[in-house]
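Need the bound structure for coenzyme A, inputs here:
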Amino acid sequence: MAMTFRVEISARGHGRTSDWEASKIAAWRRELFAEDQNVIDAFIWQDKDGMGFDIQTYSGEELVGFAHVFARVGQLDDSAFLMGCLGSVMTAKTHQGKGVGTTTVRTAGDVILKNLGADLGVLVCKSALVPFYERLDWRQMSTPVVIEQPEGQIEWPHESMVLLGKNPQSVPKKLDLCGLPF
Ligand SMILES: CC(C)(COP(=O)(O)OP(=O)(O)OC[C@H]1O[C@@H](n2cnc3c(N)ncnc32)[C@H](O)[C@@H]1OP(=O)(O)O)[C@@H](O)C(=O)NCCC(=O)NCCS
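Answer from helper R.:
Posting the output first, comments after.
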């Protein structure tokens, strides 16, 4: 039988995240992204302090999954559009492979398209995770994604995926994230 999880969504900095949970999330970040540290350290990332929404997934009373979303105006095939930016997707190591990440990312998609009313969801990831997100209706970008770095605009050299809302209907040709990656 599939396990059911409870998901809480709260504005970062105004929410229900206890100090204990915040330190748990910080520890996950160190542990779960350790193998990607070289890639992470190669870029300057968006500082998400006090910004956007925390998505927290619980098994009973235990926090087992996390993600963050925020809204930003991007440039899509040369017109402005509202992006729902998804990042920090994590499941506690001992709870992986049970559907927690699926629940967290599905909820994040709903927040992006329904609550934020964004035109498009956007995330960046490593290639190994493309099949995971594809199963959750995200589509891989095959054309350039532009990010900002201190030296100027550059092309994001790893994977990027989009969650299509009603408008646009097709994967964009060119996407400018109009800021730092997240
Ligand atoms: C990606 C992640 C959030 C998935 O969480 P989860 O709760 O295990 O997700 P689910 O149980 O819903 O789905 C698991 C499936 O995701 C896929 N998957 C997860 N991590 C993967 C990886 N590193 N490489 C390839 N596939 C992966 C697998 O298909 C897996 O299925 P399996 O358990 O049968 O092998 C979790 O693995 C994680 O925290 N990873 C480290 C942090 C990270 O890379 N986050 C993504 C940033 S873009």
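Comments: The first helix runs from residue 19 to 32. Residues 6-176 form a domain with the Aminopeptidase fold (CATH 3.40.630.30).
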